[in-house]
Amino acid sequence: MNKRALSQEEESGLLETLEQRFTQNAHRHAGITWQEVASRLQSDPEKLWSLNEMEATGGEPDVTGRDGDGFIFMDCSQESPKGRRSLCYDHAALRSRKKNKPENSAVNVASEIGIEILTEDDYRNLQSSESFDLKTSSWIETPEEIRELGGALFSDHRYGRTFTYHNGAESYYASRGFRGKLKI
């Protein structure tokens, strides 16, 4: 069996979970029907596998918009996904740590599960539908010019506002993870 494909049972369970979340959170995807989404999902087993990984790591993926004739899924867990915390920003940052290295980096994990880290615009758009990361924070895609200087960006939502900050890319915290997106 393909490593990046789900069994029939896993696929059915994931589709049921996604449909339930889709139905309960209609404000995230006005004008989109579950039938459209389900049809698209069933035609792309590798993307279903990635969605399953998002779910397994605590992301609670849901449709947040359209991408041409496709759809955008983003992590919609209330806080940064639990299974994707305590990570530094990228592989270069991970290599640069001499002591107390985290298990991995946000960029590596995103690549392994086939998703993209949210950009600052993505993060702000997600926050416009409801408030996320009230107690945690999430790494966001960092421009190369900031990364070249050793920094990385992260965001959270406090005091009714969405904030973007900077930190050393090699830093990691139990309350900081990353949110991802997947275009299907």
Automatic annotation (TrEMBL):
InterPro entries: DUF4256
Domain of life according to the entry: Bacteria
Pfam families: DUF4256
Protein name: DUF4256 domain-containing protein
Native organism: Salinicoccus halitifaciens
Lineage: Bacteria, Bacillati, Bacillota, Bacilli, Bacillales
